[in-house]
Design a protein that fits this description.
- By secondary structure, the protein is of the alpha/beta class.
- It is 41% helix and 12% strand.
- The protein has a 7-stranded mixed sheet with strand order 3-2-1-4-5-6-7, with helices on both faces.
- β2 (115-119), α6 (124-134) and β3 (140-144) form a beta-alpha-beta unit.
- α1 (18-33) packs across α4 and α4 packs parallel to α6 (124-134).
- The structure holds xylulose-1,5-bisphosphate (XBP) and magnesium ion.
- Magnesium ion (MG) binds next to loops.
Length: 252
């Protein structure tokens, strides 16, 4: 079996439960700041999440509301810039934290000499700030953000770019994701993929994921293993040996 040389993490919904408690709140505050009547509740935001990238998400929603193309082209970037500024304020104020078990897993990987990377469709304006706030001191060697790729997830480009910057073949690394769009992206890049679902993604079609859990788990409080398609024997704690058992998967 190949060695586990790197793990490539998604951020939103995976390292941090940021969609419900961060992005959604910031999008709504931006609508309010622009005196617009739109508000995204939990359920609606769950549906809108299938459009990755905040500006694209706003533009698609405005189109559904009958806003003209010219007006969308003006409004979507302005609203997104406002949303990003508000999100950064929330991050700086400590509104977001790592999901339970994330710090344990990252510490284990660092101790095991496994290289760390990020592949997200979120924007660089907040991604590194969030990481340094919620997992301070963790050495992410490569951080690929949505504004640096031409095609966002489910396209594989974010993961392919992360592997290129790590100078590794897909068989030497594993992706950790939370959503169907993320799994499609990782698998299309040839990576094995472990998924840790959250409230928004528990109902997603994750049939191409290798391992699915409902949390990162800890020995005292293991997560539920929802699928273990590579027979890792994971008992509810997503740890370094479990991820190592996923490497070497054949490109999908
Ligand atoms: C995350 C996204 C992002 C965030 C919002 O998807 O799609 O658009 O929702 O961030 P993934 P921005 O977790 O699959 O990377 O507003 O910066 O786009
Ligand atoms: Mg995600």
């Amino acid at each position: 079996m190949a060695d586990l040389e790197a793990v490539v993490f998604d951020v939103d919904g995976t390292l941090v439960d940021s969609e419900r408690f961060g992005h959604r709140v910031a999008f709504n505050a931006a609508f309010e700041a622009f005196d617009l009547p739109y508000r995204w509740d939990d359920d609606e935001y769950g549906r809108l999440l299938h459009t990755t990238g905040g500006e694209r998400r706003i533009a698609g929603y405005l189109a559904d509301q009958g806003v003209t193309a010219d007006e969308r082209d003006r409004l979507a970037p302005a609203l997104h810039a406002c949303k990003t500024k508000l999100l950064v304020e929330m991050i700086d104020g400590g509104a977001l934290g790592a999901r339970p078990g994330v710090v344990r897993l990252l510490d284990e990987l660092v101790a095991g000499g496994v290289r760390l990377a990020v592949a997200t469709t979120g924007s660089r304006a907040w991604v590194e700030r969030l990481l340094s706030r919620v997992v301070p001191g963790i050495p992410f060697e490569v951080v690929v953000t949505g504004d640096e790729v031409t095609a966002r997830k489910p396209d594989p480009e974010a993961f392919t770019e992360a592997l290129a910057r790590l100078d590794l073949p897909p068989a030497a690394a594993v992706a950790v994701e939370d959503s169907a769009e993320g799994v499609h992206s990782a698998v299309a890049a040839g990576l094995a993929c472990a998924v840790v679902v959250n409230g928004y993604t528990a109902g997603h079609d994750l049939s191409s994921a290798d391992l699915v859990l409902d949390g990162f788990g800890d020995v005292e409080r293991p997560a539920a293993v929802l699928a273990d398609r590579r027979a890792t024997g994971c008992a509810g704690v997503l740890d370094c040996p479990t991820l190592a058992r996923l490497v070497g998967r054949e490109a999908g």
